[in-house]
Amino acid sequence: MTFQAAGGPHLPGVSPAATGTPAEGDRPGLIAQAHQRSESYGLRPYESPDFCPVLQSELKTQIERSQSLFTYALPVMETLYDQIVNTQSMVILTDAAGLILHSLGDDDFLAKANKVALQPGALWSEESRGTNAIGTALAENKATLVHGAEHFLEANRFLTCSCMPILDAYGKTVGALDVTGDQRGFHKHTMALVRMSAQMIENQLFANAFQDMVCVRFHSRAEFIGTLVEGIASFTPGGRFLSANRSAQFQLGMSVGALHAHTFSSLFGLSLSQLFDAERKAPGGVVHLPLPSGVKVSARIEWKAPAGSAPAAAIDRDCGGDEAHRRPEAASLPRRAAVQPAQPGLDDLDTGDAQIKGVITKLRKVIGKDIPVMVLGETGTGKELLARAIHADSPRHAGPFIAVNCASIPETLIESELFGYEEGAFTGARKKGGIGKMLLANGGTLFLDEIGDMPLHLQARMLRALQERAVTPLGSSRVIHVDVSVICATNRNLREQVANGLFREDLYYRLNGLVVRLPALRERSDLDVVANKLLREGQANGGPRIKDSVMEMFRSYHWPGNIRQLGNLLRTARLMAEGEAEITEDHLPDDFLEDRLARQATHPAHGATVAADAAPAGERAAQAAPRAQPTRLADVEVLAIVAAVKAHHGNISAAAKALGISRNTVYRKMDEANALPQQDG
């Protein structure tokens, strides 16, 4: 496998925009914006880089979380390194946050790179390192070259770096590929090699994600099919669009988001069954397809059909498939639910807390009585889990449970998502229309999460649909009757929103038949039970227990992310403690420990049980440092920060990290320290 860079800096047949590559004339503006962001993060050009890579155990965990990326990137990195060997350079792979997962390079250059912590386990986000190719490429989500003096930190200005973000099969940034070298050896073709390598990784991630789906590989020039510049689009066997790689998006002239409004037939002008028929007759299996632009492309089709089934008979059971659109009126009839494993009911949520028990008691009195339920509570308290439990214990448990997050759907699409739409209802609409979430919930439960974020103009339509138990798809005059039970949830104060004209009063009173509030985790008396239950999730047997001192830390913590935060923390801790009997302080994530210590500093009543040796070195030094006798609490804070900076030999980043505060705060407090009266030692 050899890369040919002589063709210039662009991939053959692919627009620079399709690979996220800025034009050379745009670079000065991009670098200037990156420098402005760097300053806003509190960085200073003369600042020493932070030489605090994550622990090897944490790096291992991050690699495991990025296992697919890591697996497919390694052989590509080795091939790329073969192209640049002996050029005072290195190849780097990072995760989506800019944490370096792996690197390959010339030994003499690796020694130089280590002096600025350019090594596995180091974080190279813009917040940590200022303007640099890795951090800026991830911030801008586009290929980025940062050369010499364009780096924000002076310590990094001996480098030249070319970086390309890596997208997964669904268009989400999962990492970045970078080539970094001595700025004196800059070569203009390096970026082309990096882009081609990144696209090769992306194509392999794409192929792996959709092995059982229909993949169409195409290009306007047949000889490019099978190369890294081919377009790849994936569909369900019934024709519903799933995803497309960068080249396919460029050739189709649409982003992944816009393509989700299409089926195979609306994009290529024929059904999948017709495509399979054409493929059987085509010489070499290469068919010719028209794109929406009118351009003809050559294509190959890949699909591992289930044993005993014919491609032409394949039916997509998903809500977006063609079959679902042939009889939209059928959605008004009772739906037969697929066989699914039993879902947890309300009894499973009763873990001993009196407040939760009270909520469950109230809910049992209204389940099955056509009373709408509104669940209030902070983010992460388990509102959707409660809604699913209500559905599981209701007479509708055999019907569908459809959840809609009103805050996550773009305002321009939420109406069509909820009520459905007809063919041609709006630009980019599916050829045969789409079924809305309310129709999909027919015979079951519709869960409207973050209802307080529903656009005001849509609230009137929702009120009418709930009152009339009927919906009219967008662009249609047909009225389709529905039978749904509605559960809403929000972390907002809807009464205040009503008073401020942001939420309709009539809809508010239509939805709040029974209002229950889930307590925050810090307010619950059953934290021990909840923690142990979360720890055992997904574990057949055995596993570590939570050490008593760690459980005491949990009890004194404020849990801003509630049960969701506790669950994520325990999943990480369980991995870190693999093979050990207990989860100890050493297995807990650094951000949890730092957040707890920072809160302890401002709220002394919280977290008083933490052992002194659990504090970061800078904080211990600050505690041990001889202090003057200040008269104000603010002065104590200033002196503690000064002590931390001294303990870290003037490294502002390390001191800020140890104290759990921003660099800007450290700089501001240092200025205040200069204004304090000097006292004899």
Automatic annotation (TrEMBL):
Gene3D superfamilies: 1.10.8.60, 3.30.450.40, Homeodomain-like (1.10.10.60), P-loop containing nucleotide triphosphate hydrolases (3.40.50.300). This is PspF family transcriptional regulator. One of its GO terms (molecular function) is sequence-specific DNA binding. It comes from Cupriavidus basilensis OR16. InterPro entries: AAA+_ATPase (IPR003593), AAA_lid_NorR (IPR058031), GAF (IPR003018), GAF-like_dom_sf (IPR029016), Homeodomain-like_sf (IPR009057), HTH_Fis (IPR002197), P-loop_NTPase (IPR027417), Sigma_54_int (IPR002078). Keywords: ATP-binding, DNA-binding, Nucleotide-binding, Transcription, Transcription regulation. Residues 1-28, 312-350, 603-629 are annotated as: Disordered. SMART domains: AAA (SM00382). PROSITE patterns: SIGMA54_INTERACT_1, SIGMA54_INTERACT_2, SIGMA54_INTERACT_3, SIGMA54_INTERACT_4. GO terms for biological process: regulation of DNA-templated transcription. Transmembrane segments: none annotated. Residues 315-329 have a biased composition (Basic and acidic residues).
